[in-house]
Structure to design on (158 residues):
């Protein structure tokens, strides 16, 4: 009980002394708009178009999580993310956002909704549209917004 009261007293004293304001100021929040968050998807889609796994992987943070539509394996390192895109990009994917909800916080932003990914079979040139749900979680790392977590799963109903 005494420890709890002492901690509460210390917290109040810290806040009253301006310590909280100094702490908040040291945690700078980069300016970002919904339009800029939307642009991050365009950047991702453009990286897909290069068919260069390294370009796509460079858009992810140093500690990413990729839960991809067509892989059972969670990819939690840049090397594992790159490995996924080596084979996935062979399908010439093109993404289109169908629905979107964006939330912005201090060092993070999220974009969730539904999308359609069109894949092209290299041998036959046949196109397949995959309707899916997605979650992009972005983190401000190294003075730029990067994908910290990407989850995509096919729609369960036609």
């Amino acid at each position: 009980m005494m420890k709890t009261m002492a901690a509460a007293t210390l917290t109040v004293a810290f806040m009253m002394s301006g310590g909280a304001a100094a702490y908040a100021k040291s945690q700078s929040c980069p300016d970002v708009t919904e339009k800029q968050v939307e642009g991050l998807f365009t950047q991702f889609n453009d990286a897909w178009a290069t068919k260069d796994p390294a370009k796509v992987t460079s858009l992810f943070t140093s500690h990413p999580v990729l839960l991809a539509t067509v892989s059972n394996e969670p990819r939690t390192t840049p090397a594992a993310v790159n490995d996924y895109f080596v084979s996935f990009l062979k399908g010439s994917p093109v993404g289109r956002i169908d629905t979107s909800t964006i939330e912005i916080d201090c060092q993070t932003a999220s974009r969730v909704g539904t999308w359609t990914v069109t894949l092209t079979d290299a041998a036959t040139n046949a196109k397949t549209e995959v309707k899916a749900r997605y979650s992009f979680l972005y983190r401000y790392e190294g003075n730029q917004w990067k994908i910290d977590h990407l989850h995509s799963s096919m729609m369960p109903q036609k």
Remarks:
- DSSP finds five helices and five strands in the chain.
